[in-house]
Amino acid sequence: TYNSTLSFSTSDPAFSVINYPLAFTVFQQPDIYLFQTELDFGQTALGQTTTRQFMIYNGGYDTLKISNIATTDPSFYTSTASLDIPPFYQMAFVVYFTPQNLQYYNAALTFDINVPGSDTYSIPLAGEAVLQGPLYLNAALQPNNDVNLEWLASSGNNGNWIGYSNDIYYTSLG
Questions:
Q1: Cα–Cα–Cα angle for 68, 96, 49, nearest 5°?
Q2: Which among 121, 118, 116 has a CA at the least distance from the CA of 27?
Q3: 25, 100, 29, 26: which is closest to 59 by C-alpha?
Q4: Mean pLDDT of all residues in the chain?
């Protein structure tokens, strides 16, 4: 709390100086602003990883301490468990989605902040696991009624290499 006096000089001889007492308190606490209110990862190939950045801005006059960063489903995870954001700065952390089952995922990103009276923040997370189909598929019937299948698919190492397969499936006519 700051106390002082504001003085005015006047041309009135009876009140040549007028004094006004002043008192004010500066609240030095952080103030959180979220750039996103949810994170949607869209469709992600089964076993692959998709990332999203989660940005937080501190518009207050004290360091914003973010703690207990977690997710409610292990298919979503974060790059950090806590952050300290100085006044009037912003920071981001990465949230990952690696689905292990073919399904639609709904979860939450949760964290606490150092503002008295604040509840735990809960940010909705969503994503869908899909099978990654072949990039090319060709089936050819052979003269003996066997089927020759060729396909080209992206697989392994987050889809960074291409696999080629050429198989003949034998049929029996009798």
A1: 160
A2: 116
A3: 29
A4: 84
CA angle, 13 as apex, 11 and 18 as ends, to 5°?
A: 70
Are 40 and 126 contacting, i.e. CB atoms less than 8 angstroms apart? yes
If one counts every other C-beta atom within 10 angstroms of the C-beta of residue 133, the result is: 10
Question: What integer pLDDT is reported at residue 20 of this predicted model?
Answer: 86
The number of beta carbons lying within 10 Å of the beta carbon of residue 125 is 23
pLDDT for the residue numbered 165: 52
Share of the chain above pLDDT 90, in %: 51
Could you report the per-residue pLDDT of 1-30, keeping only the tens digit for each? 788 888 888 888 888 888 888 887 777 889
Q: Say if pTM beats, i.e. exceeds, 0.90.
A: no
**Tokens describing residue 163:** 């696999």
Query: Which has the closest alpha carbon to 26: 91, 114, 87, 90?
Result: 87
Close Cβ partners of 121 (under 8 Å, ≥ 6 residues apart): 32, 34, 110, 111, 112, 113
For residues 118 and 105, give the distance between their C-alpha atoms in angstroms, rounded to a whole number: 27
Q: Strand runs (DSSP E) across 35-88, as ranges?
A: 39-45, 50-58, 64-71, 76-78, 83-85
- Is the separation of the CB atoms in 106 and 49 below 8 Å? no
